[in-house]
Amino acid sequence: MQKLELRQEDILYSGHAACPGCIDALSVRHVLATLGPDTVAVVPPSCMAIICGPQPFSGLRIPVYQPTLESSAAAASGLRRALDARGRKDTQVVVLAGDGGTYDIGLQCLSSAAERNENIIYFCLDNEGYMNTGAQKSSSTPHHARTGSTPAGKTTRKKNLTEIMAAHEIPYAATATAGFLPDLVRKVQKAKSMRGTRLITLLIPCLDGWGVPEDQGLAIARLAAQTGVFPLYEVEDGWRYTLNDPPKTRPVRDYLQPQRRYRGLSEEAVEELQREVDAGWARLLVRVQSTHAAGQ
Amino acid sequence: MSACETRVLLSGNHAVAWGARLARPKVLPLYPITPQTPILELLTEFQANGELDAEILTPESEHSVMAACIPASLSGVRVFTATASQGLMLMHEKLHYASGARAPIVMANVNRTIASPWAFWPDQTDSIAQRDTGWLQFYTESAQESLDTVIQAFRIAEQVLLPAMINLDAFYVSHALEPVQVPPQSLVDEYLPPYAPEHFLDPERGESWGNVASQDMYYRHRRDIGAAMDGSIAIAAEADREWQRRTGRGWGLVERYRCEGADLVIVTMGSMCGTARDAVDAMREAGQAVGLLKVRLFRPLPAAELRQALAGVRDVLVLDRNFAPGAGGALNHELRAALYGMEGAPRLHGYLAGVGGVNVSPEKIIEFAGRARAGEPVFEPVWAR
């Protein structure tokens, strides 16, 4: 087994307020350790805001500005411009937002920040629902998943944030998950080396919201990538696609079975989800191939 | 001092942009909306010409404009923006957020009707609806006063750490051209030193803002905002005196116009004051003891100044160019509260005059004054045009 060589400069301190086994905290710990201390974080209401801790404490060593739920990218833009005006152009401004604050209520201002190519890194900590309020559906919640507001299962599909943001032709849009930590850290390093609007969608299995045992968060995250439900890939400038390991080698059933949010799923629904994943994977391959065809 | 000022023909909007430019803001998030847009356009032109060294960003909405203003201000730089009507409505949540964050942002708001239905006329309901958001509110009557007030507002806001709003009526002030004295940069620089707050967001400091507060912390925070608001009355008065010393122009928190011995005083805000001055002049000419009390600072309400100015007056005619359904005119309500319990308090006649931008001529104001003097005050608002 490969030993992980990870930079460990703790910016997210221990003693934070996350649930035991939380993948959100684990992911952010590595994201911030990779970015380093010359960073300011914008954290809207979300699990991460709770993890940051109540006043007068802070789970983060760096400054945190907590905006309203819908305004993270706009707030990060204002913060960025003020730092620029003060000559602090190398300080990283990062957003650590959930999927509700990104796919739903925060999408408008995120689109605008991307259009202006604001020099920020936006991390969407995607746990596929409003988990901080007790697990209700967001537009990131996948098809057939049960949540507090979709007790019979969600009838529509998950929105594809990464593709939406890539379509803004921003320098960098990528997916990553703590289930493949070296890949995640590499992507954070790559994003850090670039300027402009960069977005990384991090899949964060929510133990409580998804109905996963405390020690199985990373295993589920790995299955999400291995089944092709959450492919790991990068898009540069909106069109240069790179597919990362792992390849899609396992049936979707392997991913669905351990999660309580998919309990009682009919055989037809499982097959439907498999078809959706297969089609999505095929589309992604076409984009990767067209990148190669263009000589990139 | 004023000898080195430049005399220029400016609209109220362009006077605001000049005031903002002279204050040297560092971040300006801006979004266009009628009738504010000329402020945005002149500021972007200043920047393009190299006359304004600032970051300008143009987000997709006024909501995002204010969302950007707040952390920019908390990063320790001077921030300015401008809006109107629906834009101010869309900002509402963030207006509270700004004062809660103690961010001394200065914003011009061009008072315009709020939808629905759509309309574009002078009406102050937009900013009146924001009176509980923790922003200082000024109402200006002219282009000159608008320019001067923008600069004063930065000085006041940065001392009390609360945001400030300068309200100018659509078209009557925003688009009317007047000769305006533009003060030299050196004068403004001396009056308004660079913004250097004690606390600001910076990785070297590690200070944060917005984390969840306990009941007790929240209570104390609100109480502190109240104390800062109360304290801003004296600071605003000082800022105006100092401006007067340097430019010769002082506007007061309230202005008493021909109030000597008046048995009836008209109280109003914004462009209506100009019309009321003509009405007062005509009535004085006709031998009637009538004056005008202009309310320039509306938040915080300078209650002591109002009580003093109206002591011994028999009738007060309040002209509100705003309307709260089920309640009436805001200035009338505020005055009732401010004068309550006062020995020999005047009789208050609350008129909804000019709501929706309908024209109110000096002759009409003279007619209202006659009706007020002859009749008994009623609790219900009087629709007048």
What attributes characterize this protein structure?
heterodimer; A: 296 residues; alpha/beta; Rossmann fold; 8-stranded mixed sheet; B: 385 residues; 6-stranded mixed sheet; 12 helices; 15 strands; globular
Task: Kindly describe this structure.
The complex is a heterodimer of chains A (296) and B (385). Chain A is α/β, with parallel strands linked by helices and 296 residues long. Chain A has a single domain (23-293), classed as 3-Layer(aba) Sandwich (Rossmann fold), CATH 3.40.50. Chain A has helices spanning 23-35, 47-52, 72-85, 100-104, 107-115, 161-166, 181-192, 207-210, 217-226, 252-256, 267-293, and strands spanning 39-42, 64-65, 92-98, 121-126, 172-177, 198-203, 233-236, 240-243. Chain B folds into two domains: 2-247, Thiamin diphosphate (ThDP)-binding fold, Pyr/PP domains (Rossmann fold, 3-Layer(aba) Sandwich); 254-384, Rossmann fold, CATH 3.40.50. The radius of gyration of chain B is 20 Å and the shape is globular. With 385 residues, chain B is of the alpha/beta class. Chain B has a six-stranded mixed β-sheet, sandwiched between helices. In chain B, strands 4-5-7-6-12 form a five-stranded mixed β-sheet, with helices on both faces. A two-stranded antiparallel sheet of chain B has the order 1-8. The N and C termini of chain B lie far apart (43 Å). The model of chain B has no long low-confidence stretch (mean pLDDT 97). Chain B has helices spanning 12-22, 37-48, 62-74, 85-100, 125-128, 143-160, 185-191, 215-247, 272-285, 303-310, 330-339, 362-374; strands at 6-11, 27-29, 55-57, 80-84, 106-111, 136-140, 164-169, 177-182, 254-257, 264-268, 290-295, 297-299, 315-320, 347-353, 382-384. Classes of the chains: A alpha/beta (296), B alpha/beta (385). Chains A and B meet through strand 1, helix 2, strand 2, helix 3 and helix 5 of A and helix 3 and helix 4 of B.
